[in-house]
Predict the 3D structure of the following.
Amino acid sequence: MSNLLTVRNLKVTDLRTQAEIIHGVSFELKKNSCLGIVGESGSGKSMTAKAILGLTNPWLCSEGTAELSDGHGVLDLLQQDESTLRSIRGQRICMILQDAMSAFDPLERIGSQMSETFIENKGICRSEAMNMVVEALQMINMPEPEQVLKKYSHQLSGGMLQRCMVATALAMKPDIIVADEPTTALDSINQRLVVEEFKLLRQEMGTALIFISHDLGVVQHLADQLLVMRCGEPVEYGEARSIFKTPQHEYTKYLIDSRLEMSKSFQKAMKRGEVSA
Ligand SMILES: Nc1ncnc2c1ncn2[C@@H]1O[C@H](COP(=O)(O)OP(=O)(O)OP(=O)(O)O)[C@@H](O)[C@H]1O
Ligand SMILES: [Mg+2]
């Protein structure tokens, strides 16, 4: 199957200092597959995702290619203007940002912000969009969705905002969801629920996923391919199953040993079948 997204030799440089932050990352994302990106804090996971989507600050310069395919041709995301990128971000690729609080406008109610995304990108009217918001919130098991959508971002917890963002991305049913630590602020029940929703969307819609996480247990459960990053460098890339089984790089071994220990409870719950597969 051809690639949905092909990233080649992505580099990001801070023009203020000329320091290179990302040193040549390459990966491929196929339809209906999940790429996990792991690595310690500051290793460049978020920067890689943001660079591909044109969401970096103006002082950052991205090089390389990030070709998005629509089945007929390809479009290099790094060469597109802001308005093209904006429509791609709305319709074909949705990003769940790591910092949920900053993703919402503090002066506008959550419901109207979520519905705005649906109105702009789905061409539906306000009342249809509001219904979609409620459905989206119900899908991720948000208690009292009608109350939540009337709230402002400062009135919700980090975990609730994160779930609002996840709900928006899921409801958009894009070709690709880029989820940057989408479950870090969630308790284990909601974490499992969100992971299951991602899996379902993938099964039903063929949505591809780039899943960035510290939690190797969750990544192991979801990812087909794995990219391990350290200090802006890709240290290992390949089939997730074989990397988890026989990591080639010392750093990957270290990450797996130290992190799997922490996420054993998640794995155990999955094995006990507390969540349907
Ligand atoms: N806006 C920015 N301008 C310049 N440098 C930045 C900016 N944001 C991040 N960096 C630098 O880029 C590097 C990678 O940061 P990034 O946020 O991608 O790490 P990360 O792997 O996502 O970490 P975490 O797991 O903590 O989220 C870090 O050295 C960071 O200092
Ligand atoms: Mg990050």
